[in-house]
TrEMBL record:
Pfam families: NmrA. This is SDR family oxidoreductase. InterPro entries: NAD(P)-bd_dom_sf, NmrA-like, NmrA-type_oxidoreductase. It comes from Spirosoma flavum. Residues 2-277 form the NmrA-like domain.
């Protein structure tokens, strides 16, 4: 049986959707905090195990009968590493045969501006030290996040203003990452494996602006801004100074080339080319 944590989140939902195309629902378990959010999974025959990363008793129960565990990174960034350690510890205690983890595709964790991203690599190290066979999915920035980055439909009026410079990102759709993860989970692996799930090419925000211009027929211009100016603007929109600094740091990492990685792994797991930027934006903006 495969246990998927964070099963009602966006990535977890996508992974389970694709798993259901490949294996019977009786072979899938979903670890969720709120059973009411799992109604659709219950209807499909997926086993529900309720709990929280901080609750060892519920984790112990959730691991019973599990052969493969997919640990989807927690959203509590401040406490994420200790929560992940709880999951790994209980998986090992329950004799889970393999653990998979959704990490991040970043060039050099040692030089990250957004220090919270380092938690992914601390989790990776903990999994490796556990002695359990593992699959690490190092995921690139979701193409699905671009509307959030550029201000949704307002981009057609204001253009794109971000401190990302000339940097490029090998964007990929979340749905295709979920499909690739599901494909890997149902494959018999010998030993441990690391996949870098990225698009087949990288794109700059100039490319994003050009694609949106082409799709909409409206001129969209990317104007790189200064980090300090951008951070001040975020605070002016009502964000806390801490959150504004965190978002700015995330984009500064992009500007520093942290996500300019292109790997063939996503294409191999999908068995086809990942969706291009142009087609992805057409889907996301329904243009």
């Amino acid at each position: 049986m495969i246990l998927v944590t964070g099963a009602t989140g966006q990535l977890g939902t996508t992974v389970i959707h694709h798993l259901l195309q490949k294996i019977p629902p009786s072979q899938i378990a979903a670890f969720v905090r709120d059973e009411t959010k799992a109604a659709n999974l219950i209807k499909q025959g997926v086993t529900i195990r309720i709990g929280h990363y901080d609750d060892i008793n519920t984790l112990n129960h959730a691991m019973q009968g599990i052969k493969t565990l997919l640990l989807i990174a927690g959203t509590d960034e401040e406490n994420r590493v200790s929560q992940h350690q709880n999951v790994v510890n209980t998986a090992k205690k329950a004799d889970v045969q393999r653990i998979a983890y959704t990490s991040r595709a970043l060039k050099d964790p040692a030089t990250l501006v957004n220090q919270l991203m380092k938690g992914h690599f601390q989790t990776e190290d903990y999994i490796k030290a556990s002695g359990l066979p593992y699959i690490l999915f190092r995921n690139i920035l979701y193409m699905d996040a671009i509307p959030q980055f550029v201000g949704g439909d307002a981009v057609f009026e204001r253009g794109i203003n971000l401190p990302a410079g000339q940097a490029r990102v090998a964007l990929a759709l979340r749905n295709e990452m979920g499909e690739a993860i599901a494909n890997a989970l149902v494959t018999n692996h010998e030993g441990s494996t690391t996949y870098r799930l990225t698009g087949s090419e990288s794109y700059s925000f100039y490319d994003i602006a050009a694609a949106l211009t082409n799709l909409s027929g409206q001129s969209v211009v990317y104007s790189p801004s200064e980090p300090a100016t951008f951070e001040t603007q975020l605070i002016g929109r009502g964000l806390s100074a801490v959150m504004a600094r965190r978002i700015t740091g995330f984009i500064k990492d992009i500007a520093n080339g942290q996500e300019d990685l292109v790997s063939p792994d996503l294409e191999r797991l999908l068995g086809r080319k990942p969706t291009t930027l142009h087609e992805g934006l057409r889907l996301l903006y329904t243009l």
